[in-house]
């Protein structure tokens, strides 16, 4: 529903939410409400949007109802009488996002997606590595190879840092900040830009190691910042069975530990330099022989 009312400074009391929900259940007694969203609360242009769950249907968006926050009158609705093309498009979106699936199937969606990303990432890294290994001692890497190596580091190591920065900004930015959502997105791209600058400066193995440390610190910082700025934490989410919040913290903790492991596996600058010199000497001997 895109019928958004403009913000108003005129203060008006809102209708009781029970009156709105009664209208929903009168129309659909078995309705399963997904969530309720309030716009421009306690003003003359306040709105209440009610989203119904899709259940096990292969659709991405269930019926939605827009009510006046002042009078409780139904102003608009959508998702009830869709055309065949709209239903087909929404079904394809549902299959892509997996929101229709049960938790076990959604986790399968997640791991399959991660596996696909890992396949692409390792392919890009191995391709650039093979090209560099084939360079002769006196031969300089081409612009294309440098570009691929830069994009590899900026994308594969920059996206996780940017994602962690986004969640940290979500917890640290003041709630009353104007355009708060846009500021969170800005933090995401600034963090990604910082890694891109690192990638442009250098793409050697020790730069990957530095970025692995940064990723580990950023990912492990997310649950810490969340615990310090809210009433919940990773342990309380487990005890109270808040699985969505527990899953997010767990994912960041696992990612942080994996990045720590990665930083240990990547050789230091000195080790990498000695290994590179050894490989070049070996290639020279093979060419002379």
Uncertain runs = none
Give me the number of helical elements: 10
Order of helical and strand elements: HEEEEHHHHHHHHH
Specify the biggest β-sheet: 4 strands, antiparallel
Report strand order across the widest sheet.
Answer: 1-2-3-4
> For the CA atoms, what is the radius of gyration?
26 Å
The quaternary structure here is single chain
Mean pLDDT: 86
Q: What share of residues are in beta strands?
A: 5-15%
Computed structural class: alpha+beta
Counting DSSP E segments of at least 2 residues, the number of strands comes to: 4
Estimated helix fraction: 55-70%
| Structural shape | elongated
The domain count comes to: 2
Distance between the termini: 74 Å
Summarize the structure.
This protein is about 65% helix and about 10% strand. It is built from 10 helices and 4 strands, in the order H-E-E-E-E-H-H-H-H-H-H-H-H-H.
Q: Can you put this structure into words, describing what you see?
A:
The protein has 289 residues and is of the alpha+beta class. It has two domains: 17-97, Nuclear Transport Factor 2, Chain: A, CATH 3.10.450; 106-272, no CATH class. It is built from ten helices and four strands, in the order H-E-E-E-E-H-H-H-H-H-H-H-H-H. The chain has a four-stranded antiparallel β-sheet, with helices on one face. A hairpin with a 5-residue loop joins strand 3 (64-68) and strand 4. The chain is elongated and about 80 Å long. The model has no long low-confidence stretch (mean pLDDT 86).
């Amino acid at each position: 529903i895109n019928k958004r009312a403009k913000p108003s400074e005129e203060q008006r009391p809102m209708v009781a939410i029970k009156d709105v929900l009664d209208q929903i259940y009168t129309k659909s007694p078995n309705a399963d409400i997904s969530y309720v969203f309030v716009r421009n609360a306690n003003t003359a242009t306040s709105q209440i949007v009610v989203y119904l769950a899709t259940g096990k249907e292969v659709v991405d968006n269930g019926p939605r109802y827009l009510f006046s926050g002042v009078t409780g009158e139904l102003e608009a609705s959508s998702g009830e009488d869709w055309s065949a093309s709209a239903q087909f498009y929404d079904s394809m979106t549902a299959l892509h996002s997996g929101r229709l699936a049960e938790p076990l199937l959604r986790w399968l969606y997640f791991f399959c997606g991660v596996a696909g990303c890992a396949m692409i990432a390792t392919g890009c890294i191995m391709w650039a590595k093979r090209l560099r290994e084939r360079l002769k001692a006196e031969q300089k890497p081409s612009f294309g190879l440098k570009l691929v190596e830069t994009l590899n580091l900026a994308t594969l190591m920059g996206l996780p840092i940017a994602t962690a920065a986004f969640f940290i900004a979500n917890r640290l930015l003041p709630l009353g900040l104007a355009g708060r959502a846009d500021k969170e997105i800005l933090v995401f791209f600034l963090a990604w830009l910082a890694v891109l600058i690192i990638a442009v400066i250098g793409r050697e193995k020790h730069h990957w190691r530095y970025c692995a440390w940064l990723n580990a610190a950023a990912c492990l910082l997310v649950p810490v910042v969340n615990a310090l700025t809210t009433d919940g934490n990773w342990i309380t989410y487990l005890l109270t069975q808040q699985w969505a919040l527990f899953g997010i913290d767990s994912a960041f903790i696992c990612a942080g530990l994996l990045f720590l492991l990665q930083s240990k596996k990547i050789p230091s600058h000195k080790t990498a330099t000695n290994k590179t010199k050894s490989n070049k000497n070996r290639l020279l001997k093979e060419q002379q022989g």
